Amino acid sequence: RCMKMRGFSEDGVNLLFKGQRFNTVKRDFYSLALLQDWLDIERITIEEMMKKDAEVILTEVIAFHTRQNNSVASAKSHKACLTTMLSLKYKENLASSPTSKLINKALANATIPHRRYQNNWNIQILFNHWRQSKQNKYLNNYDLQVKIASLLMSICFFRPNEIAEIRLKFSNVDKTENQASLRLAPKQANAIETYEVYETDNEELSPKLAIYEWIDRLKIQFPKGTDFLLWHKGFNKPTTTKDISLQLTKLLRELKIIGASAYSIRHSATTELAKL
């Protein structure tokens, strides 16, 4: 989208990004995805981005990345790619700008802090958020889906890509029997992965109760039945791994959880689950 906004034709974009077979193209794609994630989180359109200062964008995107990833090497790689891309888009030489040099110096002389026990504290904040939030029936569709995704990751240890592949037609969810066995789309006809949804004593942290409420809403939305558990806004398409990651990352930012991402939730919940 960024390239097309600058006047590149479809053939030109294909030549630049699909015609080459070098590893640098792969890195550029990752950096473009990082830029797009930042735009989505900040709710900034391409037109609005083009009105911003290139040095501000470079700084904010690298700062956004370091909050999600504590690898200095990764930050340096993204910084190099973004510097080149933004220089082309804005027709500026960002590589020699004072801001770019300051970022290079910061990355070269300091490591990105990563506190050993910070994730345990983050999970406490996340769990307390759902304990203090409205009951499931009072949550809107978006918040209820975010809650389901975060609880499946932190309590049931699902991965984002697994949540996006949960199929209701293979699953066994029975509210009257208090049963919830979720199954992914089978990769082979005779290989269906089944995951039991764990229960907690706290109703506000119960994935089962949230799923029961959500399925009741799905029955209203899709009277003839539906396949996927989670859906994109407007119910126009099933949710994707990227949607889930963005939703949870947005929630973590709203809770002022620094240094955590959707992928770090499930890895740091064990200690807190032992207390439930």
From TrEMBL:
Single Gene Ontology BP annotation: DNA recombination
Keyword Phosphoprotein among UniProt keywords: no
UniProt KW GTP-binding keyword: no
Superkingdom classification of source: Eukaryota
GO molecular function: DNA binding
Gene3D superfamilies the record matches: Intergrase catalytic core
InterPro entries tied to this protein: DNA_brk_join_enz (IPR011010), Integrase-like_cat_sf (IPR013762)
Record keywords: DNA recombination
Name listed for the protein in its UniProt record: Tyr recombinase domain-containing protein
The species this protein was found in: Streblomastix strix
